[in-house]
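2024-03-11 09:14:02 INFO worker-7 job=invfold-0412 stage=load source=structure_tokens
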């Protein structure tokens, strides 16, 4: 009889590599029932999250099938500003996979390597099963090797299972638009950070975003440049240290520059009903970026005319029911959720 009735494995698997397989091998020695939870789902394709849930499921299944263990692969989304909501989501997934809900013989497996492993301490009702560090290997390193203009599959061959290698080769040859855009995003971010490399401390950037709501719609812009080219975002941008008299003034300036909204600035300023700072450490690929979001609620009625300008390819009013996490830039879906009480 195995030690645990069920073992929970949580990961992003971007992509699945040899360290993940070692963890699954260890779990299979300890249980007959493995609950795999794939994180950061429903995200747009970016350098940090290049593979969707179905693609990661394919990579994982190819390996787990070899270990003769019962398993379920589950889908979870990030709530970077609401840990209790994320924890509840994980608990509900695990409860749904277990017939006997009084079962206390559950383990959660993983290696505590850095702050990204803090989630292992969020479930005290489950026994933590520590796994050793499998070489200095993580998915970030594999992505660094894969998403390069001078890609050499020989470098990747030794750090991922053959099934993952086959998937990456397929992705490279058959998802070229996605591959090339991720390369473009990476190049942009690397170039963006060059001026700050000599600084003794990493800089913190200050931005602002406008959440303009009217008649069940939110005003959004389509980005025309990297990072996030083609994604939908809130109107906003960087605070100009020399000319913006306040963060609120920066928000109003960016809102008008990007959307040309046909509402007088005093009316927009007078319609601000709330504001909040969004400062998650990994919210932007450009580095530590803290944004100040302002909620503006306009009276119900005909939606004002808008037009994409400046950094925006397009501006439009989007019904709140049609805002999709996988179409949104960075954490703008979370910011909209805050504004509408989600």
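2024-03-11 09:14:09 INFO worker-7 stage=emit residues=342
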């Amino acid at each position: 009889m195995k030690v645990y009735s069920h073992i929970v494995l949580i990961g992003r698997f971007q992509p699945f590599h040899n360290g993940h397989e070692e963890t699954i091998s260890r779990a299979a020695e300890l249980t007959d029932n493995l609950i795999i939870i794939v994180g950061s789902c429903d995200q747009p394709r970016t350098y940090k999250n290049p593979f969707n849930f179905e693609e990661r499921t394919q990579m994982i299944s190819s390996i787990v099938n070899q270990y003769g263990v019962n398993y379920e692969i589950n889908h979870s989304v990030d709530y970077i500003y609401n840990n209790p909501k994320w924890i509840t989501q994980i608990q509900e997934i695990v409860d749904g996979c277990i017939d006997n809900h009084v079962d206390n013989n559950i383990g959660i497996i993983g290696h505590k390597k850095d702050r990204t492993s803090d989630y292992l301490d969020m479930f005290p009702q489950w026994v933590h099963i520590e796994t050793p560090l499998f070489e200095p290997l993580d998915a970030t390193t594999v992505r660094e090797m894969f998403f390069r203009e001078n890609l050499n599959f020989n470098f990747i061959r030794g750090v991922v299972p053959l099934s993952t290698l086959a998937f990456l080769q397929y992705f490279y040859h058959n998802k070229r638009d996605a591959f090339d855009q991720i390369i473009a995003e990476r190049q942009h971010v690397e170039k963006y950070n060059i001026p700050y490399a000599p600084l003794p401390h990493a800089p913190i950037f200050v931005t602002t975003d406008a959440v303009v709501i009217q008649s069940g719609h939110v005003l959004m812009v389509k980005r025309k440049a990297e990072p996030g080219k083609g994604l939908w975002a809130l109107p906003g941008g960087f605070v100009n240290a020399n000319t913006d008299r306040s963060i609120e003034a920066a928000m109003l300036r960016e809102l008008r520059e990007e959307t040309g909204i046909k509402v007088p600035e005093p009316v927009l300023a007078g319609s601000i009903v709330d504001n909040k700072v969004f400062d998650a450490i990994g919210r932007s690929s450009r580095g530590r970026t803290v944004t100040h979001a302002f909620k503006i609620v306009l009276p119900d009625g005909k939606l004002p005319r808008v037009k994409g300008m400046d950094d925006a390819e397009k501006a439009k009013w989007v019904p709140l029911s049609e805002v999709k996490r996988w179409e949104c830039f960075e954490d703008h879906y979370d910011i909209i959720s805050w504004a509408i009480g989600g």
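2024-03-11 09:14:09 INFO worker-7 stage=report msg="The CA atoms of residues 133 and 190 lie 28 Å apart."
2024-03-11 09:14:10 INFO worker-7 job finished
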